[in-house]
Amino acid sequence: MYDIVGSLNSIIWLLIVIVFIAVVIWAVRMAFAPGEGRTYREQTVVRQPAAPQAVPSSGLTPGWYPDQNDHAMMRYYDGRVWTSETRSG
What we know:
Layout: H1 2-32, E1 63-66, E2 73-77, E3 82-88
Antiparallel strand pairs: 1-2, 2-3
């Protein structure tokens, strides 16, 4: 008889603990859930454009240089890129 009462007592306490844990989980979820008056909106991430990279220079100063395609011509280098300007060398 005492074994049955002891088993029932253990089962009742186990159910009480399970109900208590369920209530705590429910309360925490309700505390962190958005309310009726509040709406959840994701923050927009604004990415800054990357700073323009400096174009690697070959170390040449701006000026006229022999054209690689036609050795009789000179091509102008503006310090950054070779231009389409040519003249006879």
